[in-house]
Amino acid sequence: MKLPELLRIGCVRLVPMESARPWPAGGSARRAPLRRELVLLGALCVFALVLLVAAPGFFAPGNLRSLFLDNLPLFLAATGMTIVIVAGEIDVSIGALFAAAGVVAGVLASLGLPMALVVPLVLLLGAGYGACQGLLVARGVPAVVVTLASLAVLRGCLRWSTGGRWIGNLPDGFQWFGLGQNGGQLLFAAVTLALMALTAAALRWLHAGRAVYAVGCDENAARLAGIRTGLVKVAVFASMGAFASAAAILSAARYPAIEIEAGAGLELQAIACVVLGGASIKGGRGTLLGTALGVVLFGALGTALVFLHVGATWERAIQGAIILAAVAPEAWRSARHA
Questions:
Q1: Does 112 score more than 70 pLDDT?
Q2: What's the pLDDT tens digit per position in 255-298?
Q3: pLDDT above 80: residue 200
């Protein structure tokens, strides 16, 4: 039997041409993420209607503004997580990296470095740390093992190096980058939206973005198609490190002190937003539009529970239920196809 031919990169699969069904190059397969996004948009509309009737105060301009600013770090973390999950990997260390990047930014600023140097240095350190994780994954170590170990190491190092104390005495130019609250808020929102838009465009139109989808869909086929799969894995984890560091900077710069336990649970929220937005946890499928809708739902959930007089302890339980509801249909379809 002849060696199966490769489908063109849309997602690459190693299958015989006579039985090939391109994914997601066309047909119903390509429309699957769109259907998930439409369902999620409908759920958001229903959610908004319930809040409009039961808790109209939720839509006060001041509350919506605070909600948007509070979730800017989640937007960035979920953007990086989308790239990782589309590549067929997972990163559960981003909460610890988020905390570490915030601490490093505060320490560098306290040493007198201007924010124009602090920001690129922290981003480079985060990307480098992520690249080291990606190198281990590319060498065959499971991503969940690498990132779990990384989480433990980072958290332990933070507690040891700081003695559990928050980072205070930050210079005036650190908070809101010295632009004042209004100017800083506009800058942070613009940077977040611009990074998400650029990442979405790169995943959609650049060869590197299509390579990420190809590796997540079928790594062996992508390798035979000439894609350097190891390099792709290093790149996606480096991107995750950079996005987590950027999220940490935007979060830390809002407050007069930096908490060393920041980012706890961030990995759960980011993964949930990505999966809820239609990405396949097995890789090869996902869009940043879906992720953004997932962030809107998850970001509003905690505040909505407060307005609905529901105990905050229910938030994690509801998040877990939403994740199961998002993943279960895909698992059921995979079992049927198998």
A1: yes
A2: 988 988 888 889 988 998 998 888 888 888 889 999 999 999 88
A3: yes
Distance of CA 120 to the CA centre of its chain: 20
Rg, Å, the chain Cα set: 21
Could you tell me the two tokens for 332? 């059921």
d(CA 247, CA 241): 10
Top-confidence range, 78-92, 264-278, 297-311: 78-92
pLDDT value at 231 more than 50: yes
Q: Is residue 45 part of a domain?
A: no
The domain in which residue 148 lies consists of 69-263
Report yes or no on 39 lying in a domain.
no
Which CB contacts under 8 angstroms, 24+ apart, belong to 59-68? 63/303, 65/185, 67/299, 67/300, 67/303, 68/189
Report the domain count for the chain.
1
Residue 89, domain member (yes or no): yes
Neighbours of 27 (CB within 10 A): 11
Instruction: Please check whether residue 55 lies inside any domain of the structure.
Output: no
- Work out whether the CA dihedral 327, 329, 335, 338 comes out positive or negative: negative
